[in-house]
Design brief:
Elements: H1 2-7, H2 10-34, H3 41-54, H4 66-84, H5 110-139, H6 143-154, H7 159-166, H8 170-199
Helix pairs in contact: 2-3, 2-4, 2-8, 3-4, 3-5, 5-8, 6-8, 7-8
C-alpha cells in the first residue's frame, strides 16, 4: 500500500490487489454470510478497491492496525452499502470514519483541479480494469454456473427457487454458487498475474565476449 500511495501507478495497484484481494474477499464473504446479504461479495470487493484507489492519500501506516484495519474499515462500509442497496449500480464511495481525508479547500486553483482530474482518471481506470476482468472471468464459467450466479446475484432469487430451476437441491445450489465464485476469483487473480508478468521489464541480454 505504501508503494501505491507513493507512486500511484497501475502496476503498484495491481500488485496490491493480488496480495490483498484473496484474504479480504474471504473476510467479506464471511460478513455477507453472517448478515445474510444477497449481493455478490465480489461486487463488494470491487467497491472496496475503488475506494482504496480513491482515498489512498488518507492511509496512515503509523496508525493502530495499519493497512489491515484501514482496508477493513473501507470494506465494512462497502458491506453495509451492499446490505442496504445490493443492486445499486455505479461507483460508490465509503465513509472512512477516522481515516476520512481532511476536507479540501473550497478555493479551487488550477493545480488542484488538474490533480483531481488525474485522480478521477486513475480511479476510473482501476474500476474499469476490475469490471473487465470480472466480465472475462464470468464468460469462462460453464452454462450452469453462469445461470446460477445470474439468478442469485442479478435477480436476487432464493437458493430454494434457484435449485428448483436448476433441478438440484438447495444445498447443491449453494455449492454451485460458491464454486462459481471461487472460479471467478481464481480467473481474475490469474489474469492480474499474467498482466503483471507481461508488463515486467525483461532483463537485458548479456553480450558474450569473444
Amino acid at each position: 500500500m505504501v508503494a501505491f500511495q507513493r507512486d500511484r501507478t497501475e502496476s503498484s495497484f495491481e500488485a496490491l490487489y493480488r496480495a490483498v484481494a484473496p484474504g479480504l474477499l474471504a473476510w467479506i464473504e464471511s460478513l455477507h454470510l453472517q448478515r445474510r446479504i444477497g449481493a455478490d461479495p465480489l461486487d463488494t470487493l470491487q467497491d472496496t478497491f475503488v475506494n482504496v484507489h480513491r482515498y489512498a492519500g488518507s492511509f496512515r501506516p503509523e496508525r493502530p492496525g495499519g493497512f489491515r484495519a484501514w482496508v477493513r474499515t473501507i470494506a465494512s462500509n462497502a458491506v453495509l452499502r451492499a446490505r442496504r442497496r445490493p443492486r445499486t449500480a455505479g461507483i460508490l464511495f465509503s465513509e472512512l470514519g477516522d481515516a476520512r481525508p481532511e476536507p479540501a479547500d473550497e478555493a479551487s486553483n488550477p493545480s488542484s483541479c488538474a490533480g483531481g482530474a488525474e485522480e478521477v482518471v486513475r480511479m476510473e481506470s482501476a474500476y474499469a480494469l476490475l469490471l473487465l476482468q470480472y466480465a472475462a472471468a464470468y464468460q469462462k464459467l460453464g452454462d450452469r454456473d453462469r445461470e446460477a450466479l445470474r439468478l442469485v446475484e442479478v435477480e436476487g432469487r432464493p437458493y430454494s427457487e434457484v435449485g428448483a430451476l436448476l433441478r438440484v437441491g438447495r444445498s447443491n445450489t449453494k455449492m454451485i454458487v460458491f464454486r462459481a465464485r471461487k472460479r471467478l476469483r481464481a480467473a481474475m487473480t490469474a489474469a492480474f498475474e499474467c498482466g503483471r508478468a507481461a508488463s515486467a521489464p525483461r532483463p537485458a541480454a548479456r553480450r558474450l565476449s569473444a
